[in-house]
Amino acid sequence: MELTVDRANFLNVVSLVQSIVDRRNTMPALTNLHLEAMGDELCLRAMDLQIAMEARCPAKVVTPGKTTVSARKLFSILKELPVLPVAFRADQEDWISLSCGNADFKLAGLPADRYPAFPEMDYGDVANAEGAVVREYKPLRIESSTLHSMLKKTVFVASKEEGRAAFSGVYWILTSGTLQLVTTDGHRLAHIRRPMESLEIAEKQTLLLPRRAMAELERIIDTHKDAKSVEMFQNGQQVVFRLNSVVLSCSLLEGRFPNYEMVIPKDNDKSVQVSRDALRQAIRRTSLLADDQFRGIQLALLKDKILLTCRNKELGHAREEIAINFQGPEIEVVFNSSYVLEFLSSLEGEEIELSFKTPTSASLLKDLEDDGYQCILMPMKI
Fold first, then answer.
1. Which of 36, 77, 158, 263 could form a disulfide with 183 if both were Cys (CB 3.0 to 4.6 A apart)?
2. Tens of pLDDT along 38-82?
């Protein structure tokens, strides 16, 4: 295998794909990138037991072939190389020579046949049993900018504890003309609904997809801002996304997503409108004295003001007031300040609405300029 590739293109693709690699993986081959030179391009692949990614970049291929190389080492080397063409060669024993300018490296690779088989990541025209050409998978087209915004507003809520399948995924609800995403970690919930004219579906579909895969999809879309749409199709237990020359595949999560509609409060009778930025700044200041583990902050809804209080037995206490127009019954609620700040950062409007019922029931945060996005937060128990 021998080729020459532009260093910037090579680095961009390696940077994108290597994030899939699980550094703690006990299978040595999966700490490597799979490289295949063919035609006039270099195809790079990475996978763990749940996610797979493929990306391509132009290359001058002298000798086609396959090999694998340490993702971490290749990425580290490419970052330090000068902006010159990179000569890449792998011999029959999978020793890899990499040259750029006056720099030369020799890396130990692993045979490509030791790399696990990739999931089916393609669709197209295939022949059926009668020999007729048919389209095996019909992809859905999702507007990329809208999807990016939806992922940005929901993925951060999903639990990072991957053992809790129902809480560690992003729940997709697809109907013709509408897409909804829902995430929860058991303490908070984010729900977003967007019209999607390009989405044509005969009947409602629901999917539970891994948080980590959706974070990667968000990153892929962010690096391909020129793409107008993302192609998506399901192949059994695999869901595949294609954006330009990048393909991301992930496995459906097993488990039942909670009944999110039951969680969204519909009868909160105490509500107030407040400046998003004023509330965010006040919480950031007051929470400087919060306990590092629980991050608790008390929010009291009083006549004509919100009173924020934080008490720490070891450090002291902090309080701040925000003037508001409120004449209803007073209420005091304790929240995890980090959760509130993350929600406030995801909102975009200048004015938000907070609504409450009791100190122990779910509270609702809404952007007054975005009826399609809701943030639900459970109070902390003191």
1. 158
2. 999 999 999 987 899 999 999 999 999 999 999 999 999 999 999
- Mean pLDDT within 236-256: 92
Q: What is the pLDDT of residues 176-201, one digit of tens each?
A: 999 999 999 999 999 999 999 888 88
Question: What CATH architecture does domain 264-377 belong to?
Answer: Roll (3.10)
Domain ranges of the chain: 2-114, 125-260, 264-377
The alpha carbon torsion through 352, 353, 356, 360 (nearest 10 deg) reads -20
Q: According to the model, what pLDDT value does residue 362 have? A: 96
Cα of first residue to Cα of last residue in the chain, in angstroms, is 63
pLDDT digits (tens, 9 = 90+) for 97-151: 999 999 999 999 999 999 988 877 665 555 556 665 555 567 899 999 999 999 9
How many C-beta atoms surround the C-beta of residue 95 within 10 A? 13
Query: How far apart are alpha carbons 145 and 149 in whole angstroms?
Result: 6
249 pairs with which residues across the strands? 52, 240
CB of 235 closer than 8 Å to CB of 175:
no
Fold classified for 125-260: DNA Polymerase III; Chain A, domain 2 (3.10.150)
Indicate the SS3 state at residue 357. Answer: coil
Residue 135, Ramachandran bin (φ over 0: left; ψ between -120 and 50: alpha; else beta): beta
Tokens of 151: 């992922």
Distance (Å, rounded) from C-alpha 347 to C-alpha 341? 10
Quick one: which of 344, 336, 337, 279 has its CA closest to 305? 279
Query: In which order are the strands placed within the sheet that holds 103-108?
Result: 60-63, 2-6, 85-90, 95-100, 103-108
Please classify residue 79 by burial: count the beta carbons closer than 10 Å to its beta carbon, then call 0-12 exposed, 13-18 middle and 19+ buried.
exposed
Distance from C-alpha of 123 to C-alpha of 279, rounded to nearest angstrom: 49
Helix (H, G, I), strand (E, B) or coil at 12: helix
The two beta strands, 188-195 and 205-210, are unpaired
What pLDDT was estimated at residue 18?
A: 94
pLDDT at 172: 97
Q: Same topology for domains 2-114 and 125-260, yes or no? A: yes
Tens digits of per-residue pLDDT, 265-279?
Answer: 999 999 999 999 999
182, 183, 189, 191 alpha-carbon torsion, rounded to 10°: -20
